Amino acid sequence: MNYLRTMRRVLPTVETFVQGIRAGNRVVLGQAITLVESARPDHQALAQEVIAELLHPTNSNPVRTDVHPGEQQPTTNNPTLRIAVTGAPGVGKSTFIEALGTHLTQQGQRVAVLAIDPTSSVSKGSILGDKTRMEQLSGNDMAFIRPSPSGESLGGVARKTRETILLVEAAGYDTVIIETVGVGQSEIAAHSMTDLFLLLLLPGAGDELQGIKRGIVEMADILAVNKADGERVKLANQARAHYLNATHLFPPKPNGWTPKVLTCSAEQGTGIAEIWQTIEAFKAHILDNGFFQENRKQQAGYWFKETLQAGIQKAFFSHPKVRKQLETLEPAVLAGQMSPFAAAEAVLKSWSEKF
Amino acid sequence: MNYLRTMRRVLPTVETFVQGIRAGNRVVLGQAITLVESARPDHQALAQEVIAELLHPTNSNPVRTDVHPGEQQPTTNNPTLRIAVTGAPGVGKSTFIEALGTHLTQQGQRVAVLAIDPTSSVSKGSILGDKTRMEQLSGNDMAFIRPSPSGESLGGVARKTRETILLVEAAGYDTVIIETVGVGQSEIAAHSMTDLFLLLLLPGAGDELQGIKRGIVEMADILAVNKADGERVKLANQARAHYLNATHLFPPKPNGWTPKVLTCSAEQGTGIAEIWQTIEAFKAHILDNGFFQENRKQQAGYWFKETLQAGIQKAFFSHPKVRKQLETLEPAVLAGQMSPFAAAEAVLKSWSEKF
C-alpha cells in the first residue's frame, strides 16, 4: 500500500518497468503486479503498456545477463509451464506447493506461486495471504510468491491473475503454480489459464466427503493423494486405487493424456520427485502432440472473447440512455405486463440505431 | 409447414390471433406458436405484437364465454401453474405426463404440454415429436400438446418455449407442463421458467447410474420414483428412502419447501393422484409465502437480462467494423504476441467512442 501512495505522485515509466522485470528485479515485478491489480484507470493503462511491451515479438525472450547458475532460460523449445494446484481445504495445498517449489529451485528452476481466491479481501485472511505458511519457499531467492488479488468478482480476480502470469514469466520464472481453494468456480478459471491441472486428495475419503465436484476431478491431469505417511499409507493406497478406477471411467481428455494417480507426503517430502517427473512427462507429451501450443492459443482466444463480452455488457448496462430505458421497462416486465422479449427488443432496437 | 406457406401470402391480423387464442381456438393457438418459432423477422414482429396484446393489463383475464364445464378460469387468486418434468431417458416421462395430464382433465382442468429439447430438429424424431407416445392425452379436447421447437441453440429453443407458455396460458390452459430430456442444460432452462420442478426417478438405481447430475436432483421440489409396480415396488421404496435421506442433506430451498419424495406407476395409474395433491400443496405453500409471485418476477427479470445480453453480443460480434478489428487482432492474440486484455481494450475503446 505504501508503494501505491508513492506512485500517486510519480508513476515509473514503461521502460523502467520493462527493464526491471526483464532483469528479474523482484521489487519492480511486485510493483508491476500492484499496477495490474489496481482499479485506477491510469494504473491500468500503464499496466497494459508494460505487458504489451513485454509480449512484443521482437522484444521477447531476450538473453538475460543475470541468469542464475544452472537456470535454463525459457525458449520456444522449452516454454514455461503453468500448473493449477487445487484440493479441498485441509488437504495440505500450501505444504505441497512448498515441497514441490523447493524441489524445483533445488534443480535450479525459478518458480512463481500465485493464487485465485475471490473470497479474499484486504481485511480478511486468504490463501497465500499469510506467507508464513510457505516459510521455506518465501525466503528462497528463486521463488516468487504472491497472494490472491482481492476483488468483488471471480472474473476480475481471474483476469488479474492471468495478467500476472505474463509478468512473472517475463521476469524469468519458468514454472508458474496457480493455487485455488478447491470448492467452486475458481477451478474453472484456473483451468482456463494453465497447461496442467493437479488435484490434491486426502487418503481414504471419496469425492463427496472431500467436497470436490465430479467435474473438477475429471479436469485433473494428475491426482495426488497427499498425507501418505505413517498409518495413513494404507488408506492413501486405497484412495489411489479408488481414483485410478474412477479415471478409467472418465471420457478421454482432449490432450490425449490418461490421468495419473500418485501418492505423496508433502510434510515428509516423499513422492514429490515422482510427481515432478510425471509433470515433466505430461509436458513432454503435450509438447509432442501439439496440445500445449493449441491449448495456449485457445486460452488466449477465450480470454479475448471473455474480456470483450464483459466489456460490452458493462458499457451497455451502465450507459445512461440504456439505464433510463430499463427504469421504465423493467417494472412492466417484472409485473408480467410486458413480455421480457418484447421489452428487450425495444431496448436493443433503439441502441442498434446508434451503433 | 403448410401453414407457413399460406402465411407467406397473407398474414392474419393481430386481432385475429388475439381473439382466436382467447376463444381457446386450438388451430389459431397452433398458428401463433408457429409464428413464435419462425425465424422470419415479419413473423417475429407479429408474434411480439400478439404477445404484447395478450399480456396487456387491461386486456388480460377476460371473462371467456366458452369456459368448459367445471373449468376454473385462472385468476390472480388462482394463477396458472408451470411444472417442469424431467428424468433420465427411459424413466417413463411421456407415460407419466399422460397419466398426470389425464388426471387433471378428468377434474375439468385444461393442460398444455410443451418440451425443451435442443437436440430435436424437423428431420430427427424428438421428445413429443411423436404424438402417438401420448395417445390418450393428444386426443383429449382439454389438453394441448406441442413438440419441442427445433433450433441450433438451447437459448433459442428456451426462448421460444418461454413465449409459448404465455400463449397457451392466454388460451386458458391452467397447468403447463414442460418436459425436458433430463441430461443437461435443458433442465436449468426449464427451471428458469417454471414454478415447480418435478424429477422422475427409476426404482433402485442411484443418481450416478441414472445419469442425473447432483445439481438437478437439488433443484427438485418433488421427486417421484416411477415404475413402482409388480416386483419393483420394493426397489422403488428403497429408492424413495435413499432420496428421502439425500434431500435432508440438501441446502434449504429459497421457496421454503422441503422436497417430497413419492412413488408411482404411471403405467398403472397408481400414485398419480397423490402426486397431484402434493403439487397442489406446493402451489398453496408458495402462494402463501409469496415465493410464487416473487419467483415469477425474478424469472421475468432474468429473461429480460438474458435477451438483452444475447442481443448486444450478437449485434456487437456481427458488426462489420468489429469483425474487421477482430480479423487483425485475433491472430496476434492467439500467437501470444498481444495480451488478450489489451486487444479487447482496443476494440472496446473504438466501439465506445461511437456509442
CATH homologous superfamily (4th level) name of the largest domain in chain A: P-loop containing nucleotide triphosphate hydrolases
* SSE succession of chain A: HHHHEHEHEHEHEHHEHEHHHH
Radius of gyration of chain A: 23 Å
Globally, the shape of chain A reads: globular
The average pLDDT value of chain A, as a whole number, equals: 84
Q: Strand share of the residues of chain A?
A: 5-15%
| Unreliable residue runs of chain A | 59-74, 121-131
Total DSSP E strands of chain A: 7
The separation of the N and C termini of chain A measures: 41 Å
Give the name of the CATH architecture of the largest domain in chain A.
3-Layer(aba) Sandwich
CATH class of the largest domain in chain A, named Alpha Beta
What about the largest sheet of chain A? 7 strands, parallel
Strand line-up in the sheet with most strands of chain A: 3-2-4-1-5-6-7
Oligomer: homodimer
- Largest interface, counted by CB within 8 Å of the partner chain's CB: A-B, 49 and 48 residues
- Kindly identify the CATH topology of the largest domain in chain A: Rossmann fold
Structural class determined from secondary elements of chain A: alpha/beta
Helical residue percent of chain A? 40-55%
Whole-number tally of structural domains of chain A: 3
* Count, helices of chain A: 15
